[in-house]
Write a structure and sequence with these properties.
The protein is globular, with a radius of gyration of 18 Å. The relative contact order is 0.13. It folds into two domains: 76 residues, Glutaredoxin; 177 residues, Glutathione S-transferase Yfyf (Class Pi), Chain A, domain 2. By secondary structure, the chain is α+β, with helices and mostly antiparallel strands. Helix 4 packs parallel to helix 8. The termini are far apart. The protein has twelve helices and four strands, in the order E-H-E-H-E-E-H-H-H-H-H-H-H-H-H-H. The chain has a four-stranded mixed sheet, covered by helices on one side. Bound molecules: glutathione. Glutathione binds next to helix 1 and helix 4.
């Protein structure tokens, strides 16, 4: 196990799903960290100094003793390997592969949750508070032209965007697979809590915070039970529940719930 020479530094956003994922991982392992909070609504991620660390201009970024790490799933695995003797990774070969598969799937699941967040509450807020030119300028700051294209489409078309169809397809298969594995054990890779549970919690939690729990409640009730177990862990309470201001959480739920009926129609139509 590596000796920790200096405090880990985590650049993160308070509600950002991939930041939450790493913060929960740090708490589960029992690692302290220096909390470098970025306001991604304001655009702190585009600061040129920050972009030297994370050229994609996204959070999170972890600094460990001069080593710069990006990508939340990789950061989780690095922390487990370096400071936790791989205790969050299943020992069983097949279960370890399954855990890594979930870490990879997080890229698509992240994109899906990002789509549902931006096509609903974020779109509504930006359209209400910014001119079309301001929205265009905000999107133009994103370094990746494909991300720009996606964001433009979500703000133009909301839940009618084709990216929403893609998001629902990935979520449907993720929930079905979660339901299946959760019928075999309490956690995503079996009877032991592990890295795949930490990797997935923030995404499902965000959907619930948007008022979209109908995406799994009736069809995959085991996902709801798993989410409740995750939310009762101390790591979640400390790193999510107590850090997201109540007012912010209430506004997200109120705004998101307005879109549930339209989203539900799309969800049923795409089944
Ligand atoms: N695959 C990356 C995704 C990182 C990402 O997109 N982060 C979001 C917050 S969850 C972000 O920083 N967004 C800022 C923006 O879109 O400008 C990871 O898991 O770390």
């Amino acid at each position: 196990m590596k000796e920790k020479l200096e405090m880990l530094k985590l650049y993160n956003g308070v509600t950002s799903v991939c930041s939450v994922k790493v913060r929960i991982g740090l708490a589960e392992i029992g690692l302290d960290y220096e909390d470098q909070r970025l306001d991604i609504q304001k655009g702190d991620q585009f600061d040129p100094d920050y972009m030297k660390l994370n050229p994609a201009a996204v959070v999170p970024t972890l600094i460990d003793d001069g080593l710069v790490l990006v990508e939340s799933s990789l950061i989780l695995e690095y922390l487990d390997q370096t400071y936790n003797q791989n205790r969050l990774m299943p020992v069983d070969r097949a279960k370890a592969v399954a855990a890594r598969h979930w870490l990879l799937r997080c890229l698509a699941i992240h994109a899906a949750v990002n789509t549902l967040t931006h096509s609903t509450v974020n779109r509504k807020r930006h359209l209400a508070s910014k001119t079309p030119q301001e929205i265009e300028a905000m999107i133009a700051r994103k370094p990746d032209p494909v991300s720009q294209m996606k964001r433009k489409d979500l703000y133009a078309n909301g839940l009618k965007s084709p990216y929403v169809s893609q998001a629902l397809m990935h979520l449907r298969s993720a929930f079905a697979d979660m339901g299946k594995v959760l019928s075999e054990g309490d956690w995503v890779t079996g009877p032991e809590f592990g890295i795949a549970d930490i990797a997935l919690i923030s995404y499902i939690d965000r959907l619930e915070r948007l008022g979209f729990r109908g995406l799994w409640l009736d069809t995959e009730p085991r996902v709801a039970d798993w989410l409740a177990s995750m939310q009762s862990r101390q790591s979640y309470q400390v790193e999510v529940q107590s850090k997201i201001p109540a007012q912010m959480a209430e506004a997200q739920l109120r705004d998101g719930s307005e879109f549930w009926s339209e989203l539900e129609d799309r969800w049923r139509a795409s089944a």
